[in-house]
Amino acid sequence: SWGVEVPGAPGHVMYVWFDALTNYLSGMDWPDGANKDFWPANVHVIGKDIVWFHTVIWPCMLMSTGIPLPESVFAHGFVHAADGRKMSKSFGNVVDPNHLLDKYPADTFRFFLVREAKYGTDLPFSEDALIDHHNAVLADTLGNLVHRGVNLCKKNCDGKVPAVAPDMPSGAGPFDLDELKEETDRLMDEFCLQEALDAVVEACNKTNKYLQDRAPWAIKEADERAAVVRTVLEAVYVLAHFFEPTIPQAATRIFDKLNTPKKAIKDLSCAFDNLSPGTAVAVGEVLFEKLKVRTVDIPLQKVEIRVGEVKSVKPHPQADKLFVVNVQIGETDSDMRSVVSGVRDTFTAADLTGQRVVLICNMKPVNLRGEQSLGLLLATESSPGKSVLLQPGHPIGGDRDTAATSDNSTAESANGTVKGKDKSDSVPHVAVGSLVEAEGYPSILKGRENLTKKDVDALAQHFKVLHGVVVFQEFPLVINQGPGGCHVVAPGAPDGPLKIK
């Protein structure tokens, strides 16, 4: 009932895509409006999920009326979460670009989106990677080059473009500008935005190498030193043109520092003599401030550890050393997890049934010899070939949660006491990797993701058994689940590193 009514056919409405696609023409008042020359389009840039409508329905509509077709259709990919999953509110992994723009320069965000993934493929978005690109490329590579260039000009050339010919070793500058023009032109025509930007970054790297190799600060002869400075300034000016599509604000600041307006790339001189001698050069602020990143020894909050009860156990039909264990981690059937476990060397099915166990719930589902495993039953070794289940210990106070924490309070066990600091200093969720903190960046902790066996192996190095209690950085591991929490214990396991099986 919703839609544009079909003339002469009461009760019928236009198919939404038939109606929507015509907006490409009506929106520009084709064929007689002021924008009529925009059709036929050189290219339709669309999302990959609507390719069929633009390559089947739309061409049929156009051909039926004799209207020319667009020259090409290019489908772009989607932005996914860091683990490759679709962003979804139910997963809790949605990234708000407006929130990111409150924390990072727009240039940084734009640069990252172009550089991180091939145009047309999906982009796994990671804030960690965005910071890495900002610091490594924009601050250290481009920003440092610009700042060194204008500073050298101030110190050695009275802050003006020197009136000497550029230093052109082997008849070329720091990079081949003709080649860069041709390569980026071709790649942009092919929608290879990432590769085009890579070529520009490589030219920037070559300029940095040129500056380091020529070392003008060590050259005694003034004209020779000035020639190197002139060449660096010329290279920076040229590079600003090629960086402008991805970092327009920074490019404008470079042109301002060099007191020279931009020009068409085709008009740039390959002899690196685009700047007018005597033009005043401004040092000003650095182009990109490095984000103050600090790595600390707290692992990332990625692991969801739950207490569950073993409801049933059966031998793996294809593997003599494995069990298929069904663990209930909640109160409903939907909270049942089937996991494949390698504790068959020590336990029988009867031994395991009814046991309260500790489970990593956010493991990436894997197929082990024909049986799907949806978690990891935590166990360690008491001796070679002898498994010990990690289990919930005595109850303690705590808020309801579904994640493990490291509680800096006192943990007691039958074998002794593990002392910690005041509970207010508790370290949140145990996990893998390193925590990165940046100024103005309250939390770079990754959301809970589907962990791999590699992640779990890395996790193990942060834990050990002390007096039968599993500890993290000397503090007892606590699972906050239900009305209170509990420590994780490994009865019978010797003191030492935790060997997760």
From TrEMBL:
<comment type="similarity">
    <text>Belongs to the class-I aminoacyl-tRNA synthetase family.</text>
</comment>
<keyword id="KW-0694">RNA-binding</keyword>
<dbReference type="InterPro" id="IPR014729">
    <property type="entry name" value="Rossmann-like_a/b/a_fold"/>
</dbReference>
<dbReference type="InterPro" id="IPR012340">
    <property type="entry name" value="NA-bd_OB-fold"/>
</dbReference>
<dbReference type="GO" id="GO:0006431">
    <property type="term" value="P:methionyl-tRNA aminoacylation"/>
</dbReference>
<dbReference type="InterPro" id="IPR023457">
    <property type="entry name" value="Met-tRNA_synth_2"/>
</dbReference>
<keyword id="KW-0648">Protein biosynthesis</keyword>
<dbReference type="GO" id="GO:0005524">
    <property type="term" value="F:ATP binding"/>
</dbReference>
<dbReference type="InterPro" id="IPR015413">
    <property type="entry name" value="Methionyl/Leucyl_tRNA_Synth"/>
</dbReference>
<dbReference type="GO" id="GO:0000049">
    <property type="term" value="F:tRNA binding"/>
</dbReference>
<keyword id="KW-0820">tRNA-binding</keyword>
<feature type="domain" description="TRNA-binding">
    <location>
        <begin position="299"/>
        <end position="402"/>
    </location>
</feature>
<feature type="compositionally biased region" description="Polar residues">
    <location>
        <begin position="403"/>
        <end position="416"/>
    </location>
</feature>
<protein>
    <recommendedName>
        <fullName>methionine--tRNA ligase</fullName>
        <ecNumber>6.1.1.10</ecNumber>
    </recommendedName>
</protein>
<keyword id="KW-0030">Aminoacyl-tRNA synthetase</keyword>
<feature type="region of interest" description="Disordered">
    <location>
        <begin position="388"/>
        <end position="426"/>
    </location>
</feature>
<dbReference type="InterPro" id="IPR009080">
    <property type="entry name" value="tRNAsynth_Ia_anticodon-bd"/>
</dbReference>
<dbReference type="Pfam" id="PF19303">
    <property type="entry name" value="Anticodon_3"/>
</dbReference>
<dbReference type="InterPro" id="IPR033911">
    <property type="entry name" value="MetRS_core"/>
</dbReference>
<dbReference type="Pfam" id="PF09334">
    <property type="entry name" value="tRNA-synt_1g"/>
</dbReference>
<dbReference type="InterPro" id="IPR002547">
    <property type="entry name" value="tRNA-bd_dom"/>
</dbReference>
<dbReference type="Pfam" id="PF01588">
    <property type="entry name" value="tRNA_bind"/>
</dbReference>
<keyword id="KW-0436">Ligase</keyword>
<keyword id="KW-0547">Nucleotide-binding</keyword>
<keyword id="KW-0963">Cytoplasm</keyword>
<keyword id="KW-0067">ATP-binding</keyword>
<dbReference type="InterPro" id="IPR041872">
    <property type="entry name" value="Anticodon_Met"/>
</dbReference>
<dbReference type="GO" id="GO:0004825">
    <property type="term" value="F:methionine-tRNA ligase activity"/>
</dbReference>
